[in-house]
Amino acid sequence: MTNAEFEFLLVEDNPDHAQLVRAAIQRARKGRYHVWLASSAEAAIKLFETMRFNLIISDFRLPGKTGLDLLLWLNENGIETPLVMLTGAGDEKVAVQAMQEGAYNYVVKDDVYLQVIPHVIDEALLQYLSNQEKARLEREIREKNVALERANRELKKLDQLKSDFIASVSHEIRTPLNAVKESISLVLDGIADPKQEKGKRILQIGNRNIERLTIMINDLLDFAKIEAGKMRLHFAFCDLQTLIDEVVIAFHAACENKKVKLVFAPPENPPVVYADAERIIQVLNNLVGNAIKFTPENGRITISYQEISGEMIQVTVADTAAGIPKEDQARVFERFEQLENSNLERGSRGTGLGLSICKELIKLHHGKIWVESESGKGSRFIFTVPTTEQVYNGISDVPPDSIERVKT
Amino acid sequence: MSESKKKKVLLVEDDKDLSDVLKIRLQKTGYDVVVLFDGIETVKTAKAENPDLILLDIFMPEMDGFTALKSLKAEKSPSGKSGKPISDIPTIVMTGKAPMMEEMVRFEGACEFMTKPVDINVLMGRIEQILK
Asked: Of all helices (H) and strands (E), which one includes residue A242?
């Protein structure tokens, strides 16, 4: 190819005419147009094996195949290169046929046709390019429409999930509230005597349900903060083992009640993490709480950690529950999602936001959280958390104002 | 009230704590109480137990109360050995707030709708009125 902006192919069997036409075109638009020559339609077709042109100017009368045959061949092969037909005087019929077959224009070889050709070509080229551009824009609009429709469908789905979520949260909050209210009423109405064992049990029900409500309300507030992009973390160096110890102690009673074992074997050199201690405890509480909920009697929950690089540490909460099917593993971290689980103890359903909050909290720590599980073989919830400040200084999608450094 | 004349309430509530406290209240007021933790067995239990009234929670895990309500109201066979049709047993629905919930529940044949947390005096008053 040449340096010219546009490459044309001229199909003309008369070499004198060919030179004249070529000169007329190239002279008219200095350097912008370059004209290749073919002496027959067959030769032109041969050239198309290896080359493409911006425009073809073809004589109608040619030794073998005619210019019209060439046009038909282009159409059959789906080649969209525009073609301008040159016809002799009295060949108007041919010209009409060529236009019907999709030629961009025709030029009658009269006394002034050499002056006319450059203008016809300019116009044909312009028309072709604008057609191309129009087709491209139409294609783009179609693609954008498809994308818009897809986005719309997803939004509708999310909207439905949100409505279901609101209805379900309303119910999940009102039920324990009802239990609190009624346990107090039983005492106030003198039906339950708090000085006796039975009455004490009623007050315990009230207490337990206030705790359930507290967890749910905290989840909802955290969720609202995250959705508004207002979750702030308070980073400091802290001893990971102390955090885990706190969680283990907090769940001691719950584990005894459910007859499950919570195991944590601290390694020799307890690592230090650079994190928001309260939030890491919250994540651990969530994971361990879930594990206790789903693990059957005599089951076992294990907390462990391991350094995976100089900068990150990996914490694992493993259980011996039923496990999570592969297809649901990503979904458990999505907001509003709560897996149907008939094994779940009555009254232990929550807002369904817990794991999505964990995911966001770990993301703000530049860590990752995921689950490894096989049906019947329990689940391992794993997250990573930084051991150094450096991790936070790298490129990240966490807005800098969400990180508040605490001097240590 | 002699034992045989005690009215029987079927309480369908999936939350253990709430059903515990409601059961105590109902018993203390003088009713026999049968508790069910999910909706699936509601029709079967209603047939066997011949309750005078059903207290139903909407949003239960296995079969939601709404479906349970529909099947109750579609059941024309008698409760107990010679009771009236299951569909005639008065049913009170308790639930959270949701758009159109009360309208839907009443349309399906519930005689009373109450939003949790229910006012226990209002609930007991309605039960007494219905069972009179």
From this structure: helix A240-250
